[in-house]
Amino acid sequence: MKWLLTWSAHIDRLSEWLGRIIQWLVMAAVVISAGNAIVRKAFSMSSNSLLEIQWYLFAAVFMLGAGYVLHRNEHVRIDFVSARLSPRVNAVIDIAGLLLCVVPFCLLLIYLSWPLAVQAWVSGEMSQNAGGLVRWPIYALMPVGFGLLLLQVLSELVKRVAFLTGHRDAPTSEPAKPQGEDEGLAAPR
């Protein structure tokens, strides 16, 4: 179990690193979007490539960030139910959900999206818009993003099983904060 936990820690570090990169992608999307809007309003000019790069950055944030969100335990869950259950029961529910839903979903989407990315690469597919961008990078985000999510799912499975078998004190790396308990937003005590 120790080597699995070490492997899990490496995946978690990868997700954290990607999370920091994604912050910069968000900043780039905001700057490009604002610049494009200013140029469009001030000079009545626009660029399809700038518009498309915004879409690409937006897609990259969501596709590459899914594993990071899972690692940080910030994904959607039914808190009013899970808050009433013990950590052990929540870990069992997480394992079942990850194995029965998320793993097959990731595998299916990797399987379906990989040929699209390869075909776009081979054909040199371009946007139909004048001045548009090549399409393969956006298609490649799908199998890469779901692959990264699948890696993080495997890491989370290792942590949940380690918790249930007594090899870890907590089922997750980052416990979810109760609503309103974000940094700087905590209610005064």
From TrEMBL:
InterPro entries xrefs: DctQ, TRAP_DctQ
Keyword terms, alphabetized: Cell inner membrane, Cell membrane, Membrane, Transmembrane, Transmembrane helix, Transport
Annotated ranges, domain Tripartite ATP-independent periplasmic transporters DctQ component: 31-161
Subunit composition and interactions: The complex comprises the extracytoplasmic solute receptor protein and the two transmembrane proteins.
Membrane topology field: Multi-pass membrane protein
Protein localization: Cell inner membrane
Region (Disordered): 168-189
Highest taxon, organism lineage: Bacteria
Family affiliation: Belongs to the TRAP transporter small permease family.
Pfam families registered for this protein in UniProt: DctQ
Function: Part of the tripartite ATP-independent periplasmic (TRAP) transport system.
Residue ranges crossing the lipid bilayer per the database entry: 21-38, 53-70, 91-114, 134-154
GO terms, molecular function: transmembrane transporter activity
GO cellular component, one term: plasma membrane
Protein name per UniProt: TRAP transporter small permease protein
Organism, as annotated: Caldimonas caldifontis
